[in-house]
Amino acid sequence: MSRTEWESSLTVPVSEQRDHVQGSADAPATLVEYGDYECPYCGASYPIVKEVQAAMGDRLRFVFRNFPISTSHPHAEQAAEAAEAAAAQGRFWEMHDLLYEHQSRLEDQDLRGYAEGLGLDVERFDRELADHVHAARVRDDFMSGVRSGVNGTPTFYVNGVRHDDSYDRDTLLAALQRVDA
Amino acid sequence: MSLGEFRGRPVILAFYPEDWSPVCSDQLALYQELLPEFSRFNAELLGISVDGIWSHLAFAKDRNLHFPLLADFEPKGAVARTYGVYRAGDGTTERALFVIDADGVIAWSYVSPVGINPGADGILSALERLGSAKAG
Description:
The structure holds two protein chains of two kinds. Chain A has a single domain (20-180), classed as Glutaredoxin (3-Layer(aba) Sandwich). Chain A contains seven helices and five strands; from the N terminus they run ββαβαααααββα. Chain A has helices at residues 40-56, 76-88, 92-101, 108-117, 122-130, 135-146, 169-179; strands at 20-22, 29-35, 60-66, 155-158, 161-162. In chain A, a hairpin with a 2-residue loop joins strand 4 (155-158) and strand 5. Residues 1-5 of chain A have low confidence and may be disordered. In chain B, 33% of the residues lie in helices and 23% in strands. Chain B starts with 10 loop residues before the first strand and ends in a 6-residue tail after the last helix. Classes of the chains: A alpha+beta, B alpha/beta.
């Protein structure tokens, strides 16, 4: 199998306005993850991304986009919407981390508890989840992933090109360092 | 069931090697998520493998799949052979996608390496090219 045959790229470029971004817009390397909060492989990659971020420092920008596969993971959609509801109150990354650190506790009351813990306006958070205010955003992320060749979670892109290699720490870090040359 | 029943609308025929194998499950779960997109094109999605009907029923129930899974079981692989995607050595089929247009003509096909989930971008692009999107 040739690698180029499989090379897929991001069809929706990273937007500092729209996307959830950690790190500087000037960073030479950008890592985009399409992830599902209930997916065990995403859970396994969560600390790896943290390690890679620590190793790269300000050379790396990290972007997370939603790719909930509800067919397999019944809590994934609501968790994604919860992260977006937290984002609406400026606390996306804190919620993102809490969700990945408690992947087996994603019931509605758990999500509400995380919102309380973060000091969010819980009434607003509950209302937005009940009304699925952020469902369209999550679906937009999902479809942008489908059109970029996401075929499972997590799928990573390094400077816009799908990372088809393993996402263990060393391999992922090496791929990022290659574009930061 | 005959594909002639679907004449007048596109059909997505997704051959996959076996029920229960890990890659298949991810692939079919992704397609389940995309049923609303496929229906925007008035397209029907059909999964097909050499597994028998009871395996399919249990698999679909377990994995929450709500589209037809066809059993290419007796004579085994006959449909796959017709499409040139039977793997005689394994007794299963390739992981192969066909988009068949409203007139029953194959408009697009793709054979993926067996262990790799081909995703859905190719299917959606093919449906777009058919220009059969129905308003709403």
